[in-house]
UniProtKB/TrEMBL annotation:
Protein known as: Cyclic nucleotide-binding domain-containing protein
Source species, domain of life: Bacteria
Gene3D superfamilies per record: Jelly Rolls
Species of provenance: Streptomyces sanyensis
Domain Cyclic nucleotide-binding positions: 11-99
SUPFAM superfamilies assigned: cAMP-binding domain-like
Length: 160
């Protein structure tokens, strides 16, 4: 089903009414099975999703180790922000952790809409910036968990 089906809560809250309707008209409902890879780190970011149901894990490559899950997102949340920021390459990877229902949006068409509807573009950019900030903090916290020395251990570079 195409257009207008995404809930207005969560990520889509606080968008200008006219712009939100135009944005929702670009969305397409999709169903993904658990284990589906939505995108790979470093590949072109040409779409994004707002989740209706289910969860998606966001992960990053760690040299010499398995991929590190940095966050799990659920209903009402945005999956993918790299589509908005040049060079439009994914900064993380995403995998459906459970069965997912979501609205999928074509990035180029949404960017064009934001150019035509500057207030929508401004508010959408601010909403994406909020997501980027939260994801940065989540990534930082997760990497500190993975790589911090155990309590009481000497800090690298510091003499005991």
């Amino acid at each position: 089903m195409t257009g207008g089906t995404a809930p207005r809560g969560g990520f889509l809250a606080r968008l200008p009414e006219d712009g939100a309707a135009a944005l929702l008209a670009l969305g397409e409902d999709v169903a993904l099975t658990a284990g589906t890879r939505l995108f790979e780190e470093g590949r072109p970011a040409d779409r994004f999703w707002v989740l209706h149901q289910g969860t998606v894990t966001l992960s990053t490559r760690v040299p010499g180790r398995p991929e590190a899950v940095v966050e799990t997102v659920g209903a009402g949340e945005l999956v993918g922000w790299s589509w908005l920021v040049p060079p439009h390459l994914w900064r993380l990877a995403a995998t459906a952790a459970t069965a997912v229902r979501a609205a999928e949006f074509p990035a180029a068409e949404v960017r064009d809409l934001c150019t035509r509807e500057p207030e929508l573009g401004r508010v959408l950019t601010l909403r994406v910036a909020e997501v980027v900030g939260r994801r940065l903090e989540a990534t930082r916290a997760r990497l500190l968990d993975l790589y911090a020395p155990p309590p009481g251990a000497a800090h690298p570079g510091r003499l005991p």
